Amino acid sequence: MMKVSAVISSLALTVAFSAPAMAQFKNSEHEVEYRQGVFTAMGVHFGRLGAMVRGKQPFDVDMAKRDAELVAMLSTMPWIAFSEESDGVSPDARPEIWLEMDKFKDKASSLQVQTKALREAAQTGDLDKIKAAFSKTAQSCKACHDAYKE
Questions:
Q1: What number of other Cβ atoms are within 10 A of residue 26's Cβ?
Q2: Helical H runs in 54-100?
Q3: Assessment of whether the complete model's pTM goes beyond 0.85
């Protein structure tokens, strides 16, 4: 557990102090690669939580806490990689993202609120609370995917 906490802390500090530098991507393809990588990592950890919530994997409170912590942290990261320069580069991103940037940012904020609630629920170790928070987080993910992802 200490090792995971150290990695999370280190990654969080790296992100916090390098955010201005990360905003300057080499090119639009690099920007897309970055955000897709973050979303992929988020999906892995959210998927593991989902397997526990659905009873497809035994509930492991420590794993749930770690995965929820990582999902919450990762939910803050991809948004800097949605610049107008990357409009049209990714076949998965709908053009509405750039046409409705305020709405897109609102959905991103909603996701961050829900992943924070998921992290807090996981910290209780109560599977029922985790299930409820997981459901709300999944709805937030789906709302953005439905509106902005091909």
A1: 9
A2: 61-74, 96-99
A3: no
* CATH number of the domain to which 48 belongs: 1.20.120.10
Residue 98 placed within a domain: yes
Q: Fill in the amino acid letter for 102.
A: D
Q: Print pLDDT tens along the chain (150 aa).
A: 555 555 455 555 445 444 444 457 899 999 999 999 999 999 999 999 999 999 999 999 999 999 999 999 999 999 999 988 888 898 899 999 999 999 999 999 999 999 999 999 999 999 999 999 999 999 999 999 999 999
Q: Token pair of 15, please?
A: 């992100």
Distance of CA 47 to the CA centre of its chain: 11
Locate 92 and state its tokens. 């998965």
In sequence order, the 6+-apart residues with CB closer than 8 A to the CB of 46 are 67, 71, 137, 138, 141
Distance of alpha carbon 28 from alpha carbon 60, whole angstroms = 39
At CA 52, angle to CA 47 and CA 56, rounded to 5?
95
